[in-house]
Write a structure and sequence with these properties.
The chain is built from eleven helices and eight strands. The chain is an alpha/beta fold and about 290 residues long. The protein is globular and about 55 Å long. The protein binds nicotinamide-adenine-dinucleotide (NAD).
């Protein structure tokens, strides 16, 4: 039986908030750690928007919505997660930042059996595990956006992950959260992003070269290939800043040109066009 009931989540952007919603929907006690007070407020608003959307679509009742909200606490105080049984790291895709978070969590996590999980899209888990004194208790849990909706989690054990940690994490994800798990290798990009990122970058290169517009490419892939989203709309949904960071890691790790972020992507990030999360990317969201 899975006995994990208390969840800590570091980072309350798109993914941290969505993972919090998934866990709260399973009636778990969830504490979300934001870097700043303003992020905590924004994270709570994102959670409420998502739940109100689900309520409008009659996917949850008003009572369930209120109960889910009650299960999640947002704070900037890292010590709120000291006694948690499972801690998800979901901060920005920047390796030094994640190292610092793993080291800080390692210092304060007091539950001897705690599992520490990273939602990284591209950084090998072993490198994050080594920032702690308990690498055997670290796994990668790569959720997909939005995590409260999409069923897949890539579960990644590093060379140092204990078999019991992996099994417990798998039982939690499938049994408690009702997710579908695939076992992914501890290699930059795991399985899905190793395939997906070159496709998204190819679409960006097509826009960059003037070969086709974002509208034309997206319409082609949605209507011609039955993809739910075209690649430019998907890039906007992921966040262009996150996509550029992921592509950079993959390119540095794997040294293959297909992962090199195109100049247009880097310029858009430089200009602060991050996609749907702040209103403008390849498409507009106002
Ligand atoms: N966006 C996606 O589609 C997607 C999908 C799967 C995995 N991921 C991964 O999930 C992670 C988070 O991505 P996101 O899309 O939520 O990004 P995001 O930009 O929406 O949120 C990242 C959050 O981390 C916060 N943060 C940064 N440093 C922090 C710290 N030291 N302590 C607490 N919070 C901190 C930022 O303030 C921000 O709110 C990344 O590793 C990303 O690669 C993203």
């Amino acid at each position: 039986m899975n006995t994990i009931r208390s969840i800590g989540i570091i980072g309350c952007g798109l993914m941290g908030t969505g993972i919090a919603e998934s866990c709260a929907r399973a009636s778990l006690d969830v504490r979300v750690i934001a870097r700043r007070e303003t992020s905590a407020v924004a994270g709570k608003e994102r959670l409420l928007r998502s739940l109100d959307h689900a309520l409008r679509k009659a996917r949850i009742t008003q009572l369930e919505r209120d109960q889910i909200v009650e299960h999640v606490a947002f704070t900037t105080d890292l010590t709120a997660i000291t006694d948690c049984q499972l801690i998800f790291e979901a901060v920005s895709e920047h390796e030094p930042t994640k190292h610092n978070v793993f080291a800080a969590v390692d210092k304060i996590a007091a539950n001897p059996g705690v599992i520490i999980a990273s939602n990284t899209s591209s950084i090998p888990i072993v490198r994050l595990a080594k920032a702690t004194s308990r690498a055997d208790q670290v796994v990668g849990t790569h959720f997909f956006n939005p995590p409260q909706v999409l069923p897949l989690v890539e579960l990644v054990g590093s060379e140092l992950t204990a078999a019991s940690t992996y099994e417990q994490a798998e039982a939690f994800l499938t049994g408690t959260l009702g997710k579908q798990v695939i076992k992914a290798p501890d290699r930059a990009g795991f399985v899905v992003n190793a395939l997906l990122i070159p496709y998204l970058l190819s679409a960006i290169k097509m826009v960059e070269s003037g070969f086709a517009s974002a509208e034309v490419i997206d319409t082609g892939m949605v209507l011609g290939c039955s993809y739910p989203l075209g690649p430019l709309r998907l890039a906007d949904l992921i966040g262009l800043d996150t996509l550029a960071a992921v592509a950079n890691t993959l390119h540095q790790e794997l040294k293959e040109p297909q992962y090199e972020p195109p100049p247009l992507l880097l310029q858009m990030v430089e200009a602060g066009l991050f996609g749907k999360k702040n209103g403008r990317g390849f498409h507009s969201y106002t």
